[in-house]
Amino acid sequence: MLKLYNSLTSKIEPFKPIHENLITMYVCGPTVYGDIHLGNARPVIFFDVAKRYFKYLGYDVQFVSNITDVDDKIIDKAKELKLKESELTDLYTKNFIDMTLALGSLLPDLMPKATDFVPQMVKYIEELIEEGYAYVRPSGVYFRVAKVADYGVLSKQNIDELNQGVRITLDDEKEDPRDFSVWKTTDDGLKFKSPWGDGRPGWHTECAVMNHEIFGSEIDIHGGGSDLKFPHHENEMAQTVVHDHHHLARVWMHVGRLDVNNEKMSKSIGNISLVKDLLTAYDPYAFRLLMVGHHYRQPINYSDDLMVQFAKEYDKIERALKKAFLTMSLEEVMRPMALKSYMDQFEDHMNDDFNIPNVMTLVYELVKLLNKEKDPKMLGDIYQTIKEILEVLGIMPIYKMTEATLNLYREWEQARSNKDFIRADQLRSELTERGWM
Ligand SMILES: [Zn+2]
User: How far is the CA of 134 from the centre of ligand 1 (A)?
Assistant: First the structure.
């Protein structure tokens, strides 16, 4: 049985989806004002693997991940680059999609843009005001945190500490320093009409409203980076509870952060590593291997040395698979079957809150067996086992073998056994050109 760590309860719990055969999941997506970096890539890879595993288990999955395309950072960057906000967000939405695919992840089933839901957000905020959960001030509309009984339950924030800890901004207008903006009135940059003046929705409201509009009821999994737990997820949840009268999600999943050389990635330190730069130097599957080689809740301390280490690991796996594939093609191994005992172990590890590091230990064991196996039928079965596991992790290379290449290979073997070294060399370079030597 699948068990997942739920950030809401701080426990590993048996996972039972709300619908019998369907898993609904929403993962907070990027604010599109720059190229995606390695930290952004981590949830993109992890939740892709989660979806693939749910499909492997036989579920249908509805995976929604939003695009935040209205934000102060977007407005500032658009000004700096002398672009319209939509030109900037189109550019970086494209980068996000391109990089998601380049990293070997499938696109979510739906990628709603915040700006496509503004009328619904305005209506939602009007309803919050009517019910007494939000109030209007000249600078915008604020959510009344004091009216939510268990506010802080997700992020385990102590309310008194929160009261003291919240940064004092516009507090002369807020009833309570914890109250957050659901609508910001402004005449600067991208703005929309509302009963409270021109402005734009608050980020926490965007996600709450898109969930409400798309799913209309409680979902199975709400996910994102661990840095989103507070205030973003706490505030999304607070709005859903009072507006929609149900919980936002049964399970909250948070992916650990990614540091670079022991430091948090930040513009001021200048240590932002971009996915597009990484992919000029490394195979995307090697990077995926690094990501899934660490448990999703643990932080990753990324470094060039670590990347090189995982690139070597991936290379070992890839070489073993390719060699086996060639042998299977030459020996015409038909319909290989994954080994049940290994697939059972794979499922046990995955069911244990996605213990993929243990899955990788299993894969390395299988690769050793693959390298040693002489019997073609057994070789095929081991290959198939690794293939089915790596497909769930999204790191299985695709090999294609043509009859012509196979014939070349056979000819090469023949030339060698005939000691016709000149011919063998010619054939070898042809095979190298085709990537099979
Ligand atoms: Zn969100």
Answer: 19
